[in-house]
């Protein structure tokens, strides 16, 4: 079953509140700083940024409650910072420094902090989210799981949806559909649609192509409320665009494809819409993340990272 709410279109949507802009820009500069730190050789391993997709978790943030569980994935820094404005702890975790969220053992992809859990294993979080949602039945809380279009190649997704519908659990599945699974375009690796696959399990589905935060919230608020009240799963699909590489430098898309994605960037649009306010907030966010990076880099290694 597909749930559709008519959209007024982004031209009629009011600009996002200042707090939302601050959170968007915090995530943007956090991600850009991570790429810079890797280029400078100050980080090891890998990381996956959400450049261009920051608006998704920021739009959802006020629709989620403190007693909800949030399950993230390998591209999860924005999911975390939209829920917990704790850039010091997150960067310390990625850099393996004191003050890290998980003592530096989780790194970029595996974070556990106050009902927020992320994993780098595709499809792993959804069955766990179903179990969490089952434990939340009747409480009004829900489990929210972020996955990508590439995750629909995992069998665990379908086992989880089957159980979620049979058991009637309050599960919100957020699909960030950016059209490419690492280096493989979705059109050549996924048959059918996300809506069709959800329908196979009688799970309601809603798709939005909007990147306007206020519009997205207006669309999703009653649907998320229904997940809580009726204890039923829901798949929300965002048609979004990744403007950065898959991880820290491996972008296999053509220059034209990258330019097309960049044309949908909220950063450019809001900078034109609110020039003075946006410019000030952008500078403040850049300065904040610069301070965070300098302070965290000066900390000793976490106990688990020491030689």
UniProtKB/TrEMBL annotation:
Gene Ontology biological process terms in this record: pyruvate decarboxylation to acetyl-CoA
GO terms for MF: magnesium ion binding; oxidoreductase activity, acting on the aldehyde or oxo group of donors, disulfide as acceptor
Cofactor(s) the protein needs: thiamine diphosphate
Domain Dehydrogenase E1 component: 23-275
Protein name as catalogued: Dehydrogenase
Pfam families the UniProt entry points to: E1_dh
InterPro entries assigned: DH_E1 (IPR001017), PDH_E1_Alpha_Subunit (IPR050642), THDP-binding (IPR029061)
Keywords carried by this UniProt record: Oxidoreductase, Thiamine pyrophosphate
Organism: Planomonospora sphaerica
